Amino acid sequence: MTINHNTDPFIQKTNNFFSWLISHASVEVSPKITVQDRRHFAQGFCLTAVEDIQQNEQLFKIPRSSILNVETGSLYKEYLANNVSIKASTKDDFLNNTGIFGQWETLILTIFYEIKVKGDSSFWYNYFQILPQLDNDTSGDIFINNLMYWSDEELYNLKPSLVLTRLGKKQSLELYSNIVNILQNDLQILNVDFNWNEFLYIASLVMSYSFDVELPVPTQSQNSNEQGKEEDEEDEEDEENIGYHKSMVILADLLNADTHRCNANLLYSDTHLIMCSIKPIAKNEQIYNTYGDYPNSELLRRYGYVEWQGSKYDFGEVPLINIKKFFQSKYFSNKNDSTFIDIILQLLSDNEYIVSNILEDETIVMESYDCYINGEIMDEFLCLVQLLTVVCENYQDFVQISSNTIGELGSVLKRIIKLYNNKNMLSGTCIINVKLIFDDRLKEYPNHAFRELNDSISSDNMLQVLREHMADCVLQSEVNSIKNCFNNLEIGKQILTDVDYIGELNSKRKNKRLNNSDVRGNNNNNKRYKKC
C-alpha cells in the first residue's frame, strides 16, 4: 500500500507512514483499498477501492493502543506516571479529563509532548510527518486551511456570513494561556517553550483531525462498583468528559469527508477501532467518512475545506438584528418609539412567567435563525415573526408595558405556538413579513454569491485564489439555503387571511380571564385583536 514516486519527499513520508502502520502500529488494512495522491485536487491523500467492496466489509482495524490520546500518549505513560513531584490528584485529573483538564487541554498537551519533547523518538513520529507541518507550507504538501489561518482580507470575503462571529479567537487565546499555565505550574515542564504559533498549529490539528472515541464498555465488576456510588456522584455522567477520549486516530483521519458520498463509518470494540463500509463501494471509488451534520461554513471553519457542490446540511442564517430592523422600519419608522421591539424581545427572553410557563424554559429569541438547504425553517423563527406581526399591528394594546400586557403577551404567544404546532397555521401578513425579511437578508450578499461557482481548484492555484473560491462557495451555500426557504415557505402551511387568523387567536379566549394573578393582577383582560 505505497505510492511509487519516491522523488517526492512527501510521498516518501507517506510510504514510511504506511510501513510503520503495519509493522509497528499493528493496523490491519484490507487488500481491497489503497492510498491515492489527490493533492492536485486540494484533497491531500485519500483511500480508494482497488476492487469492488460490499456493504459492511472491514476496511481497516486499528488497535486502541495505537491511537493517540491522554491514555496512550507519552506525557501520561512516561512523564506523569513516573514523576513523584507531581500531585496524584493532578495525574488523576489529567487522565480522567477532570478538574483543570478538559478534553481539549489534555489532547493538545499530549500532542505537544510527542512533537516537542519526544520528537523523532515518538511512537507516532511517522504519523505526524504526513500531517500538515508547523510552518503550514502551502507550496506542495497538505496544509491547514481553517479560518484561524486566514488573513483579515481573506476573512472579509466571507461577509455577511455569520461564521465570522464564530471564529473563536478570544476563546483560543484563553485556552492557550490556560495551557501554558498548566505546563509550567501543574505539569512542571519548564524547559520547553510553547509559543502561540505552536499552540495554534496543534489546536488546529485537534480541530481538523481528532475523533471523540468512545471508551470501552466497563467490565461487570466495574459496573458493580459504580452501583455503590452516591446519587450526587452520578451527576458526573452528564459532564462532557465522561464516556470518550478526544483522540487522534491514525489512518481514519486520512479519509476525506463528504456529506453526500459518505460510504464508511468508524465502529468501536473494546480493543479496536474498525472502519467499515456502510454501502457498496465500486472499484476506483474514493472512500469517504463524514465529520457530522455541518454546513459548508462550519466545514470551512473547523476543517478548512468546503464541498464545492454544497453540503447536504447547508443552511443560511437570519440574524435577530435583521428581524428587529425590519419591524422597526415597517411599523415604527414614523413613530418615536425605537425601543418597543427591544422591550418585547427582552420580555420574551427574560420574563419568568413567559419563559417558564409559556416557553417551558425553551427559547424563542435567538441570536440567529437557521434556514436549511432543504427548505426547512426553524419553528422559533416563524412563531417569533408571527408574534411580532400581531403585536405590532396591535401596538396600542401593548405599548404600555404592565402586568396586564405581559400576561396578554404570554397568552398570545402560547396560542400562536399551539396554532403552528397543531395546524401549521400562520397569517398572510406573517408570510409576507417572513419573505421580506428573507429578501432583506439576501440583499446583504454580494452579487457573485448568486452566480454558478467554478469548482475547478487545483494545488497549482495561489492560496489566495483557493480561499477566495472557498469563501464564494460558503456564501453561495447560504444564499441557496435562504432562497429555498423563501420558495418553500408556503408549502404545508395553512395560511389564513389576517381576519381569520385573529379569529383563531381569539376563539378560545372569548369570555376567558387570564388566570395568572401574579402576572397581571385581578383585571379582566379579554382583548380581541384586529387583523394583522
From TrEMBL:
<dbReference type="GO" id="GO:0016279">
    <property type="term" value="F:protein-lysine N-methyltransferase activity"/>
</dbReference>
<feature type="domain" description="SET">
    <location>
        <begin position="25"/>
        <end position="292"/>
    </location>
</feature>
<protein>
    <submittedName>
        <fullName>Related to Ribosomal N-lysine methyltransferase 4</fullName>
    </submittedName>
</protein>
<dbReference type="Pfam" id="PF00856">
    <property type="entry name" value="SET"/>
</dbReference>
<dbReference type="GO" id="GO:0032259">
    <property type="term" value="P:methylation"/>
</dbReference>
<dbReference type="InterPro" id="IPR050600">
    <property type="entry name" value="SETD3_SETD6_MTase"/>
</dbReference>
<keyword id="KW-0808">Transferase</keyword>
<feature type="region of interest" description="Disordered">
    <location>
        <begin position="217"/>
        <end position="239"/>
    </location>
</feature>
<dbReference type="GO" id="GO:0005634">
    <property type="term" value="C:nucleus"/>
</dbReference>
<keyword id="KW-0489">Methyltransferase</keyword>
<feature type="compositionally biased region" description="Low complexity">
    <location>
        <begin position="514"/>
        <end position="526"/>
    </location>
</feature>
<feature type="region of interest" description="Disordered">
    <location>
        <begin position="513"/>
        <end position="532"/>
    </location>
</feature>
<feature type="compositionally biased region" description="Acidic residues">
    <location>
        <begin position="229"/>
        <end position="239"/>
    </location>
</feature>
<dbReference type="InterPro" id="IPR046341">
    <property type="entry name" value="SET_dom_sf"/>
</dbReference>
<dbReference type="InterPro" id="IPR001214">
    <property type="entry name" value="SET_dom"/>
</dbReference>
